[in-house]
Amino acid sequence: MSGNLMNCDAVLHLIPLYFYGELAPPREDEVEEHLHACPSCAREMERQRALAAAIAARQTEPPAAFLAECRGGLMAAIGGAAPRGATPAPGPWKLFLEAVARSFAGLERLRVPVGAVALVAIGFVGARLTTQPRAGDGVFPIVRSIQPDGSGRVQISLDETQRRVVSGRLDDQNIQQLLVAAALGDNPSARLESVGVLKDRAESSPVRDALLNAVARDSNSAVRLKALEGLKRLADEPDVRKTLVQVLQTDENPAVRLRVVDLLVARRDDALTGVLQNLVERDNNSYVRLKSEQALKAINASIGTF
């Protein structure tokens, strides 16, 4: 027990971080000590749990048109244009002036040569003038290089991708290949959506491999959690268990580690004892430590290592 109890004000600010396992172990212990001694803050902790449970139970599916509009606005913002439905996009000359103004605003601080700034500005306008798609044609240009020739002309090298919509059944091999490619791609939103679809098709070898890859390597914890749902039915397979044990020992997100413990202890496995004992002693999250301790008790194993 610490002799220095935290005050209620500090604990109330830390309760959300404590609930989601984002506090360092010493601070976590201080919050727990205060919660045991303070009924008012303990009630606030219960409200936090109830709120999280209510949010988790409410599955809201936004309309497809709304999602498309949001994605379109995001792509427009990334490309430097105005979102769909906003005020009309400014003309190329105004865009040129704005780009030059923004570039020269930080010139002194960045010490960028004037020629380089001008080249960026010219490239910006060149891309807008020569590659801006017609409304509705779904073409998205990516400028790769810009080469002015000294005569007032500029040569721009670009890639153009054109969006098309493909539909089909989930058992269609081509559809499945596209979903697997999305699960391995660079777009975190697409990875989450594709893994959410693929998780119910884990009996397919390519899908299974994609889910294992997502659990072990995806940088987005939401994608990793979604992939774990798909691996639940395969948790008895040796290679799946091997990957899960690695994730349990290395994943930085406590929610992922908690879910992996649940999957692994569903089947008694004496080889897992040492891993759980290590978690009890060293994991930085109190919920993971408690879950591991409970799992060890369930299999009548020693809590500590000797």
Question: Layout of helices and strands, plus pairs?
Answer:
Elements: H1 8-19, H2 25-37, H3 39-57, H4 64-79, H5 92-105, H6 107-110, H7 114-131, E1 139-148, E2 154-162, H8 173-183, H9 188-198, H10 205-217, H11 221-231, H12 238-250, H13 254-265, H14 273-282, H15 286-298
Antiparallel strand pairs: 1-2
Domains (count): 4
> Could you state the order of secondary-structure elements as H and E?
HHHHHHHEEHHHHHHHH
Mean pLDDT: 75
Strand content: 5-15%
| Shape, per Cα inertia axes | extended
Could you describe the largest sheet, including whether it forms a barrel?
A: 2 strands, antiparallel
Q: Helical region count?
A: 15
Written account of the structure:
The chain is mostly helical and 306 residues long. The protein folds into 4 domains: 8-55, no CATH class; 87-162, no CATH class; 166-231, no CATH class; 235-306, no CATH class. Helices cover 62% and strands 6% of the residues. It contains 15 helices and 2 strands. The protein has helices at residues 8-19, 25-37, 39-57, 64-79, 92-105, 107-110, 114-131, 173-183, 188-198, 205-217, 221-231, 238-250, 254-265, 273-282, 286-298; strands at residues 139-148, 154-162. The chain has a two-stranded antiparallel ribbon with strand order 1-2. A hairpin with a 5-residue loop joins strand 1 and strand 2. Helix 1 (8-19) packs parallel to helix 3, helix 8 crosses helix 9 (188-198) and helix 9 (188-198) packs parallel to helix 11 (221-231). The radius of gyration is 27 Å and the shape is extended. Mean pLDDT is 75; it is low at 79-89 and 103-136.
